[in-house]
């Protein structure tokens, strides 16, 4: 869990993979929901396993239990204006929203933004959205990114193989550094 008394958290949902312009191979749209502590950068990401194309799967019935599971009560939560977040105040969170259709940082209060979680999504896409990445392994790619972020000091000079299929570990295996092999291709 992240957050706690007065700890600032940013939450957001993001489409990870989708067909562009409804062309090309038919692939399942993959959505993620995540949160990030502003100060410590501790984070969580949860794949939304239901079809989310029309908004179902990203509704309050899906997102509220995830927030309760991963974010401690009395946290300060910053989010966009997605309607599923409207219940957060009644759940014991302090909640601020930024309207992305008007601005990305609230002009009246510059602390109200979701720039950090947006940066996390950008890092994730840069890391895993490439032609050679296989959709069935997206959960493992997300787990790998979270593992590397959590252990970045230890893995400062880490290398990974060019053949990215070798990177597919199960989530339990990612918990130990000893299973990671260091190769000659830079990670980032």
From TrEMBL:
Q: Which InterPro entries match?
A: IS1016-like_transposase, Tnp_ISXO2-like
Entries under Pfam families matching the protein: DDE_Tnp_IS1595
Outline the extent of the ISXO2-like transposase domain.
1-151
Q: What is this protein called?
A: ISXO2-like transposase domain-containing protein
